């Protein structure tokens, strides 16, 4: 069995060779890999920009074809699914994607890192553009960090076991998606639709951007430093490599020229030219640069004609038992400590209820399952959903919250649930989503213009009616009566009343009050109708139908109503008038 | 068949999502003339039958409501819309079209609850008549309940009852009431407007003059102007509006929010201004696009958005208003403007003349401003 995907060196270069050589040595050595990488990066970028509102399709509705695929790279990141499932102690549907990646990895070890990961490809591009030219930060192959990624992974999983999700900070695809989103999302929105549509940034944005830049910047130390030494997703795939069926092998014809050593960016080749199988991503550049065609990718147990082992010349710190034990225990302990600390912090923030997207799981479970990837902000029309900063605690960082002062949740959209890769926001059909209460609008009667007797204002009522909820209706206030006690036509104002059984907390009323009365006319300091959340004001269920829940609630309120006379239809004309 | 229902399904979805604006159809409801006997039959049959929505609308009201609904509240009772039925209807039912039907059910229910008190029955009957007339524009049922009220010794508002008869197709019955009324009372604006609506412009003007002599000039001259305008007598309309403007300023009336006290003058001014535009208006000279303008309505400024394409008025939309009763002026007037492709010769919607005129005036202003 041969799995050679590289382009072997040739004495008589063909036109293809010449063209690839012009593109660069790694293109020449392993063109298929570079091609796949490029295609994946392009796919990632296209999906990324495609689903950014404003959508290119008609009616500002996202295309049903592309939307479900936008989060495909998130599904493929096994750490995201596994940590979310572990934290929530529940089946997360994206585990299927993780399983697929690990299964394929048996044949193509760490293929995700070598071929697919858009962050890896971006780091490659950064290495080529910047790191290749800036050498003063370069470091050797030895260091305390060579096994760091395993410890990072242990910390993440230990914290997840304590119910706290840290993968949003370090998992490859979460870092790159959010980094791109916070860096380029606003630019896209600003250029396509107008800068006034770009919401304000908070500390969370800067931390995320800094993290993304730091990951790229690590390339200054060594090529793909992040991937080779730090990335916990990579560590998971490395562990997956223990079950590999294939391997890089070196044949006895090796002349020990050292070209493969220089070409490998994953630190996967020992000084004696044998393979560190857990590091190898099957990028196969080494095979392409080998002048004697001594490197082959073949079955794990195929050992014919191999270069004999030449003693223990491993330059990496040996995987000694004591170090491993201390490291692992330390990582476990720090993960558990981080988990406990954040869980404690979360409890401390239990009073501040953010408005979560429609269909979000109950808060605790939501935080356990939300991987902070940022996809929901990206698909949300008009940025109703925005990332939380530190106001919800470190554990709430980058989780989505609706900001009704900025925009209200459109009744025609259920994108956030459709795109959520872990089901922290349930993928509800539109008719279900319309029955979800995100919160409850409340009128501040001291501020509201008609209540305060300041002026006629019907913005919120009209907005709610236009959205089809009809959850805010009028009441006449401040009316005058004449001497006989008869109300004077035209006196007083019509003021808004929220119907609790109809309001879903979409926030459209608050948006309009804020944009017109606060920002436009400068009559108020804050919207006089505000969506709030908390027990009894929002619906968040793990499974089951929101419409049923609503029907149940309505029948309960009906029972509390005065009982109706039987057969009221017969009473239209009562007998005494016949 | 299947395709048809599928299409309808798609249309309904789009409608629900707000992607499709309802294009007002260009059919003028031709007036049907009916004999006295036919109208009597309609009132008897239609009026005594529960409306088709009757069973689907729930009877609901706040628990705190005082269902005994006293005919007269004791002096000094504090205003409480959750307790006093009349105040509940005024504050909660009337301003919300979605509650009108449930309000009618409530009144009907209270009538049955208080059947032992004739005064309460009579008040319920009158309220039912008003609600069917003012809110639902259900002429047959309004007439039916008012007649029941009269049978009980109550008093039906004569102009409104006459209006029902006219709407049901019998001018003779309406005229009978109005003539009867004339013998006892000083003419009022609604009476003048109804005469005008029935095409009796001279009669209407005669009443306006006699009302003016009694000292009630502003409202009635305004009504006279509106009647002339409806009838296409623009020059004469202008003289009436001028008369309104020339009247001495009256002392503030009522307890309105300010601007309402001076409405007759404001409206006369707005109507004069709009009429000047009517003749100058040439749709062909209005380039494609959307135009907005405003005019004074019943409770405040009303804004319209008119869209024009290829020299045709494509749609008119009321963008913003402060009207407190939503009547049918919005759809009715707009339908007429679009179907006639003009702001001239539009019949004002009865009961909402002022709103109707505001829509016409604002549309005229918007188009005139867009003209090249």
Question: Which terms would index this structure?
Answer:
heterodimer, A: 578 residues, mainly alpha, Alpha-Beta Plaits, two-stranded antiparallel sheet, 24 helices, B: 372 residues, Serine Threonine Protein Phosphatase 5, Tetratricopeptide repeat, Sufe protein. Chain: A, three-stranded antiparallel beta sheet, 55% helix, globular, disordered N terminus
Quick structural gist:
The complex is a heterodimer of chains A (578) and B (372). Chain A has 578 residues and is mostly helical.
What is the overall pLDDT average of chain B? 83
Our count of helices of chain A gives: 24
| Strand percent estimate of chain A | 5-15%
* Rg calc of chain B: 22 Å
Mean pLDDT across every amino acid position of chain A = 86
Task: Choose one word for the global shape of chain A.
Answer: elongated
The CATH architecture of the largest domain in chain B can be given as Alpha Horseshoe
What low-confidence regions of chain B span 5 or more consecutive residues with pLDDT below 50? Answer: 1-28, 252-261
**Broad structural category of chain A:** mainly alpha
Number of strands of chain A: 8
Total tally of structural domains of chain B = 3
The main sheet of chain B orders its strands as 1-2-3
Structural class of chain B: mainly alpha
Approximate helicity band of chain A: 40-55%
């Amino acid at each position: 069995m041969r799995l050679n995907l590289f382009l072997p060196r040739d004495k008589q270069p063909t036109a293809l060779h010449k063209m690839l050589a012009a593109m660069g040595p790694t293109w020449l050595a392993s063109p298929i890999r570079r091609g796949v990488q490029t295609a994946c990066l392009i796919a990632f970028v296209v999906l990324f920009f495609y689903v950014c509102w404003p959508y290119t399709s008609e009616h500002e509705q996202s295309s049903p074809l592309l939307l479900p695929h936008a989060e495909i790279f998130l599904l493929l990141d096994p750490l995201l699914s596994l940590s979310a499932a572990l934290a929530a102690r529940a089946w997360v549907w994206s585990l299927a994607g993780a399983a697929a990646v690990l299964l394929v990895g048996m044949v193509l070890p760490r293929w995700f890192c070598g071929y697919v990961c858009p962050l890896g490809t971006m780091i490659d591009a950064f290495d080529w553009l910047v790191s290749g030219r800036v050498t003063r930060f370069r470091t050797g192959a030895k260091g305390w960090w060579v096994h760091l990624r395993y410890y990072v992974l242990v910390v993440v999983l230990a914290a997840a076991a304590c119910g706290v999700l840290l993968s949003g900070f370090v998992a490859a695809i979460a870092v790159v998606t959010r980094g791109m989103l916070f860096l380029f999302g606003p630019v896209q929105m600003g250029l396509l639709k107008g800068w006034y549509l770009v919401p304000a940034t908070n500390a969370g944005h800067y931390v995320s951007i800094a993290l993304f830049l730091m990951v790229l910047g690590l390339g200054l130390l060594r090529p793909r430093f992040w991937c080779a030494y730090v990335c916990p997703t990579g560590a998971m795939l490395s562990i997956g490599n223990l079950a590999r069926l294939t391997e890089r092998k070196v044949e006895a014809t090796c002349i020990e020229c050292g070209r493969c050593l220089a070409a490998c960016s994953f630190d996967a080749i020992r000084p004696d030219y044998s393979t560190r199988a857990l590091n190898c991503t099957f990028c196969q550049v080494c095979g392409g640069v080998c002048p004697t065609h001594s490197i082959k990718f073949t079955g794990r147990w195929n050992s014919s004609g191999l270069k004999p082992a030449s003693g223990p010349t491993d330059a990496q710190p040996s995987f000694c038992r004591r170090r491993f034990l201390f490291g692992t225990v330390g990582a476990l302990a720090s993960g558990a400590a981080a988990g406990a600390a954040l869980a404690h912090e979360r409890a401390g923030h239990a009073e501040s209820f953010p408005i979560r997207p429609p269909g979000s799981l109950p808060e605790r479970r939501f935080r356990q399952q939300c991987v902070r990837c940022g996809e929901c902000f990206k698909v949300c029309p008009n940025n109703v959903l925005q990332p939380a900063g530190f106001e919800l605690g470190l554990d709430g960082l980058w989780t989505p919250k609706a900001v009704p002062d900025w925009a209200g949740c459109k009744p025609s959209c259920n994108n956030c649930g459709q795109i959520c890769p872990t089901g922290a926001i349930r993928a509800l059909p539109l008719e279900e989503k319309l029955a979800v209460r995100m919160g409850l609008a409340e009128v501040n009667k001291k501020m509201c213009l008609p209540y305060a007797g300041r002026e006629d204002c019907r913005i919120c009522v009209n907005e709610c009616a236009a959205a089809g909820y009809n959850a805010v209706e009028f009441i006449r206030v401040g009316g005058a009566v004449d001497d006989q006690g008869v109300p004077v036509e035209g006196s007083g104002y019509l003021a808004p009343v929220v119907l609790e059984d109809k309001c879903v907390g979409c926030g459209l009323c608050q948006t309009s009050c804020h944009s017109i009365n606060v920002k436009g006319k400068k009559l108020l300091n804050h919207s006089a109708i505000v969506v709030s959340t908390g027990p009894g004001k929002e619906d968040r269920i793990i499974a089951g139908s929101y419409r049923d829940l609503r029907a149940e609630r309505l029948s309960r309120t009906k029972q509390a109503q005065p009982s109706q006379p039987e057969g009221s239809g017969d009473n239209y004309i009562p007998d005494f008038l016949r | 068949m299947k395709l048809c229902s599928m299409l309808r399904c798609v249309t309904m979805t789009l409608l629900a999502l707000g992607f499709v604006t309802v294009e007002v159809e260009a059919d003028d409801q031709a007036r049907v003339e009916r004999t006295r006997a036919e109208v009597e039959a309609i009132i008897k049959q239609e009026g005594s039958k529960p409306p088709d929505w009757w069973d689907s609308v729930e009877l609901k009201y706040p628990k705190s409501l005082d269902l005994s609904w006293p005919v007269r509240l004791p002096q000094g009772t504090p205003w409480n819309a959750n307790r006093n039925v009349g105040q509940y209807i005024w504050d909660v039912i009337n301003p919300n079209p979605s509650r009108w039907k449930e309000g009618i059910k409530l009144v009907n229910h209270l009538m049955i609850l208080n059947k032992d008190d004739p005064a309460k029955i009579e008040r319920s009957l009158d309220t039912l008549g008003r609600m069917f007339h003012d809110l639902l524009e259900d002429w047959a049922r309004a007439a039916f309940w008012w007649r029941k009220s009269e049978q009980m010794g109550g008093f039906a508002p004569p102009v409104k009852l006459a209006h029902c008869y006219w709407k049901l197709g019998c001018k003779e019955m309406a005229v009978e009431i109005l003539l009867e009324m004339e013998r006892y009372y000083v003419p009022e604006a609604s009476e003048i407007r109804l005469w005008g609506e029935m095409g009796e412009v001279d009669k209407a003007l005669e009443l306006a003059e006699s009302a003016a002599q009694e000292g009630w000039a502003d409202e009635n001259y305004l009504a006279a102007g509106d009647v002339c305008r409806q009838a296409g007598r623009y020059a004469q309309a202008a003289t009436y509006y001028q008369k309104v403007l020339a009247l001495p300023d009256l002392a503030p009336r009522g307890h309105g929010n300010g601007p309402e006290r001076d409405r007759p003058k404001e409206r006369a001014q707005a109507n004069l201004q709009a009429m000047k535009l009517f003749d100058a208006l040439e749709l062909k000279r209005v380039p494609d696009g959307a135009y907005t303008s405003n005019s004074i309505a019943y409770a405040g400024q009303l804004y319209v958005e008119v869209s024009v394409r290829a020299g045709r008025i494509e749609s008119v939309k009321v963008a913003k208003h402060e009207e407190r009763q939503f009547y049918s002026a919005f759809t009715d007037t707009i339908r007429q403007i679009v179907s006639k492709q003009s702001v001239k010769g539009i019949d004002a919607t009865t009961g909402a003349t002022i709103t109707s005129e505001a829509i016409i005036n604002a549309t005229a202003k918007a188009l005139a401003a867009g003209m090249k």
